Model the fold of this input.
Amino acid sequence: MSTPDLAPRRTFGGIVAVWVLAAVAGVLIGLLAPAHWRAQWISVALGGCLIVSFAVQLWYGRSQAFIQRMAISSLGAAVVLGLITAGFALGAVVSG
Done:
């Protein structure tokens, strides 16, 4: 049996870091990618966020609630990228 950590690291920072990465990637893709390539690049960004999320959660070294932390960070990244994509899509519709 192992002894519990005296002061375990907080896991919420890693989850939010993946969300911030998704927001930065989404904005950069929206500004730099041509309109007809945005959907493909958003898919690549979501895959990258999934890999980063996995790496961050493994770096914490805690097995408790690993699946929940992965789900929250991955789903949050998908929601963030979806909202940013919807914003750029609405902007393209309004501008003509």
Remarks:
- The first helix runs from residue 12 to 32.
- The chain has a mean pLDDT of 90.
- The chain has three helices and no strands.
